[in-house]
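Hello forum,

I keep getting stuck at the same step: I have a sequence, I want structure tokens, and every attempt I make locally crashes halfway through. Rather than fight my setup again tonight, could one of you with a working pipeline run this one for me? It's a single chain of 203 residues.
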Amino acid sequence: MRKLIVFFLLILLPLTVAQEIKIVEYKIDGTMRVSVDESGNAKVEETWKFTPNLYLQMKQAYPTTYMLKREFENKRSDVEYEDMKIEWDDTNNQIRATYTLLGFAVNKGSYWEVKMGNDLTLSTQTGNTLVLTAVQPLFNGQGRLIETITVTLPRDAKNVRFENGAIKYELPYKESGKNPIFLGLAGIALVGLVLLNVPLKRG
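Reply #2:
Ran it on my machine without issues. Output:
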């Protein structure tokens, strides 16, 4: 599992009572916008849209956004982030989050690097902006996860490329950086369901 999708993959891990999740079909569509500054930090906006049945089950398990944020803090103390805000969007069956991720890009000396994951495909690149996509089957084909990630690098970035699952670029100066771990709002619930051995049944 690549590092990008970790936030929702952890949400359901601490449930004390396993629930039987009945799902007719489910889909998760994730959109992430990442703006990287000259120091390697990133401002992130995420939106994850669920099918109504899966969204309802998540709301029942975590009725407040404070519970989601606390769960993340408990499970991912290795991640450095600031100003995290999460909100439910009941009208559109979505969860939205914004935060600043520290050390998203790593200074490798002659270039900067952001490890994104080998399962991502570069869809388009315009200057310092890259659009990456991924489609993943979930739970033995009962559902699917689609991600679209738009990464905007610093204005002065040059020699920008996506290779071996990583974004690499150069800047006219150097700053220190730390290894990034993307919060990724999608999978916490899904991995949690797997680890809990929660059965998935079609209604």
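Residues 1-6, 9-24 have pLDDT under 50 and may be disordered. If your local run keeps crashing, start a new thread with the error log.
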